[in-house]
Design goal:
Distance between the termini: 25 Å
CATH superfamily of the largest domain: Formyl transferase, N-terminal domain
CATH class of the largest domain: Alpha Beta
Number of strands: 7
Structural class: alpha/beta
Radius of gyration: 16 Å
Number of helices: 6
Strand content: 15-25%
Largest sheet: 7 strands, mixed
Shape: globular
Number of domains: 2
Order of helices and strands: EHEHEHEEHEEHH
Helix content: 25-40%
Length: 191
């Protein structure tokens, strides 16, 4: 079972998903701490409600100091909208989800609705999400799991976002379970 630190910046929808799946015993992980770089993030209120230790921290140094108080196997970026540099011991243990099928529509500046608008503008008929390890370059770490969704001609960027988030709710827990089963180094050694 993986012990996770969850970093978020917003509403905590992914935290909701993790919490629910842990309760259902379909996610083989334990949330040790939740940290947000936004002081009034709804995700922090949800973490409090769920009983997880939770903190506001606006910089990497403070985040890493907080994480050091817990036994952590992986750091999960769950809608964390800031570049994060982990402590040296966890450099290869940061997992992110991106709302496209990498290598398409990724890299610096591609996040959230920007991705879905670009997918719509290009006329793509498939999109999806990619769960990957993070490194020091946006969206270039080893891929753990990808999940695609079919798009309709009439889908607007909001429709695409809804379809992709539904896929994310399946893909992110699946990826974490795969890391638990195979270990972190398996994925780094694939690339």
């Amino acid at each position: 079972m993986l012990k996770m630190a969850v970093l978020l910046s917003g509403s905590g929808r992914t935290l909701d998903n993790f919490h629910s799946r842990i309760q259902e015993e379909t996610l083989n992980a334990e949330i040790m701490v939740v940290i947000s770089n936004v002081a009034d993030a709804l995700g922090l209120s949800k973490a409090e409600k769920y009983g997880y230790p939770n903190f506001f921290a606006s910089d990497n140094e403070t985040i890493n100091r907080l994480i050091s108080d817990y036994s952590i196997d992986i750091i999960v970026l769950a809608g964390y909208l800031k570049f994060y540099t982990p402590p040296p011991a966890l450099t290869r243990a940061v997992i992110n989800i991106h709302p496209s099928l990498i290598p398409s529509f990724c890299g610096e500046g591609f996040y959230g609705s920007r991705v879905h608008k670009a997918v719509k503008k290009r006329g793509c008929m498939v999109s999806g999400c990619t769960v990957h390890f993070a490194n020091d370059v946006y969206d270039e770490g080893p891929i753990i799991h990808q999940q695609s969704v079919a798009l309709d001609y009439s889908d607007n960027s909001e429709d695409i976002a809804t379809k992709v988030f539904t896929a994310e709710c399946e893909a992110f827990p699946e990826a974490i379970n795969r890391v638990d089963e195979r270990g972190i180094e398996f994925f780094w050694n694939r690339s």
